[in-house]
Specification:
With 376 residues, the protein is of the alpha+beta class. It folds into 3 domains: 113 residues, Orthogonal Bundle (Butyryl-Coa Dehydrogenase, subunit A, domain 1), CATH 1.10.540.10; 108 residues, Beta Barrel (Butyryl-CoA Dehydrogenase, subunit A, domain 2), CATH 2.40.110.10; 146 residues, Butyryl-CoA Dehydrogenase, subunit A, domain 3. The chain contains 11 helices and 10 strands. The strands form 3 sheets. A 4-stranded mixed beta sheet has the order 1-4-5-8. A 4-stranded antiparallel beta sheet has the order 2-3-7-6, with helices on one face.
Length: 376
């Protein structure tokens, strides 16, 4: 790892150890990330990691982003996904596809966390099949009028800016889909409900109702009818962030299981002396090392502006499934204690599961990888 990345990792690791890890259990219990922690992350530049300095951002690259995501998620997966969804799902499409006027208007406040961002693609009947969405954007001349419902929106409760996907033409497929920058205080934009989830409980997951929401023409993101390609490009990068989140959760579980195994005495010696435990720890360590290399490889390719769709899908698939396996085994190493909320591994286990689902299920990742392999 280059010295600059070592410095970023050390910085993020120290921040996670001091500010995030001690709050992980209370964030899970209270289902809220404290405003004071958000303020500290703003001061660190975490809300604008790869936003250029000209727009008040930190001006870092995607490798730095994935490193920071891993460390924050090691401390608290809810905190990690707040930063991930904000940066990769809201900031990125504006940075990549927005006009200069859109960038000047929105990026500086997104960079500081004054504006929190979200990404509105999924619907009650359009999850993996994003092309079948029914949210409609009617062209009214000077503005579009959006009507529909979006489901499972990370940061949906707190967001000030939403990247919203809707069809401007009633088609049976993804043709006619557009992307819009929507200010959530606009009349007709309503948080219908927040979900009660298994894990990442400190992160809000909302259902959003759009009731004739007026969006100015200048807030169309990219070209009309190109929304589906914008969504896919955004998710390619977002998957790297979720892979890094899964990696952080796995690392936290591994560290605790290793520590516990050295302290837990059975049959007159630490359970770490038993080969059965040693083999579990060895497999955990190996899966984490492989996950980290895959995340870094996808990040490197993205930074180099080289194709990375397959690599981001591979990183997300492998890291999320590794995290689920590692957190399950961490509970096993801790035995009955691992099943109790007093111990952190049960929280990591609950948090890990969603990484196999959101921003493309493991099944969708396999389809993406197979398609790219077979057509290369």
């Amino acid at each position: 790892m280059l010295d600059e990345y070592k410095e970023i990792k050390e910085m993020a690791s120290k921040f996670a150890d001091k500010e995030v890890c001690p709050l992980g259990a209370s964030i899970d219990k209270n289902e809220k990330i404290p405003d004071d922690l958000k303020k500290k992350m703003s001061e660190m530049g975490f809300f604008g990691i790869f936003i250029p300095e000209v727009y008040n951002g930190a001006g870092l690259d995607y490798m730095s982003y994935s490193i920071i995501m891993e460390e924050l998620s090691r401390g608290c997966a809810s905190t990690g996904v707040l930063i991930s969804a904000h940066n990769s799902l809201c900031v990125f499409p504006i940075l990549q596809f927005g006009t200069e006027e859109q960038k000047k208007k929105y990026l500086p406040k997104l960079a500081t966390g004054e504006f929190i961002g979200c990404f509105c693609l999924s619907e009650p009947n359009a999850g993996s099949d994003a092309g079948s969405l029914t949210t409609f954007a009617e062209d009214k001349g000077d503005y579009f009028e959006i009507t529909g419902t979006k489901n499972f929106i990370t940061n949906g409760k707190e967001a000030i800016i939403a990247i919203v996907f809707a069809k401007a033409e009633k088609t049976p497929d993804h043709k006619g889909m557009c992307a819009f920058i929507v200010e959530t205080k606009t009349e007709g934009f309503n948080v219908a409900k927040c979900e009660d989830k298994l894990g990442i409980k400190g992160s809000s997951t909302a259902q959003i109702s759009f009731q004739k929401v007026k969006v100015p023409k200048e807030n169309l993101l990219g070209q009309k009818g190109k929304g589906f390609s914008i969504a896919l490009a955004t998710l390619d990068g977002g998957r790297i962030g979720i892979a890094a989140q899964a990696l952080g959760i796995a690392e936290a579980s591994f560290r605790y299981a290793k520590k516990y195994s050295k302290e837990r005495i059975q049959f007159g010696k630490p359970i770490s002396d038993f080969q059965g435990i040693q083999f579990i720890l060895a497999d955990m360590s190996t899966k984490i090392a492989a996950s980290r290399l895959m995340v870094q490889n996808a990040s490197f390719l993205k930074d180099q502006k080289r194709p990375y769709s397959k690599e981001s899908a591979q990183a997300k698939l492998f890291s999320s499934e590794a995290a689920m396996w590692i957190t399950t085994k961490a509970i096993q190493v801790c035995g009955g204690n691992g099943y109790i909320k007093e111990y952190p591994v049960e929280r990591h286990f609950r948090d890990a599961k969603i990484t196999e689902i959101y921003e493309g299920t493991s099944e969708i990742q396999r389809l993406v990888i197979a398609n790219l392999e077979l057509n290369s």
